[in-house]
Amino acid sequence: MAYAVTQGCSYSLIAWMRRSGLGLQSITWLVIITFTMLILAPTAEAVHEELDRPPALPPVTAEAQFSAHMVELTERVKQWRRALDPNGFTKMHEAERGRSALAKLRSDLSVLDRQVRDSLEQSAQALQSREISTVILEREQDTAAHYEQKYAELEQRLAQLQSARGAEEVQALDHLIAFLDAHPSGRPQAPFDPNNLPFLNLQPVPNNTPRLQTQAYATDFPAVVAAMNGQPVANLDPGRDTTAGASSAPTTSGDENKPPSTPATDPSPRGSDPNAFDDQQWLSTSDEVVLTDAIIAQAAALDNNPVTLYHWVRNTIEWIPTWGAQQDADITLGSQRGNAFDQASLLIALLRAADIPARYA
Description:
By secondary structure, the protein is mainly alpha-helical. It contains twelve helices and two strands; from the N terminus they run H-H-H-H-H-H-H-H-H-H-E-H-E-H.
């Protein structure tokens, strides 16, 4: 019955439109189109928002969450300690706030601890399945054992602090702060949002025409073509270092504390034997790879251990999203920040300061 009524209404509307004049027909079609657009507008807007949505960032790992919680724990404990007087007396609400935050962080760390242990176990199993060398497997096992030992000690100190009161609370806080300062949490992977960079992207060159003939490459880039053919490559510009990629900004020079750079003799993988690590070229200096007193002292402070040097650069130097060698290793060390090129230059400088041959990959 309802279908018949609807069908009859539709037929009557169409018949009325046929009998109406051209003006009324135009108005009717305009109303129909308007209502159709209004009905479809939310759907079109939803599709537009979905297309404009930026790509999702990679999920945060348990290790990164654990590191972030450790940083928060350190800040909370130090703030709690500053609120206490030498005798352990403080305002009741400040003490309760500190204990409440400590209990929540302790609970969260317990959950993340299990996830980190599972991740370490999965990593060890993956290495064993690939038949990795025994040295790497032992290093992985030592890392897991060291983590379990330090976490057990942390848990013990947290339990002591949670039950302490008065002067014992001050002592427990001091012991915990000393432990946290002696074992700082490693810096997690820097978050990267390609749609929110602090620097502008490189702009295209509209008039740049592609080179379609091999001879054009040989004429414009003789060094690259020679390297591709396995021929030795000489530094065509003695005043410029070519070992760290194309620099987008000039490197600071004129520092009297830096040894004179020797870019002409600095090793480059182009045209060189990648296995000739006994060559003294891999220990030389360049515009980016400088061996200052600060570089040498930092390498010595890390026992000149290549693994320790790598982890120190990885966990200490803040990554910034720029392109090209922006600064030399000494500036990167002093500012504690740099892009991928700058961090590579710093690591190479530290390795060379430790008398370990190193070059750009």
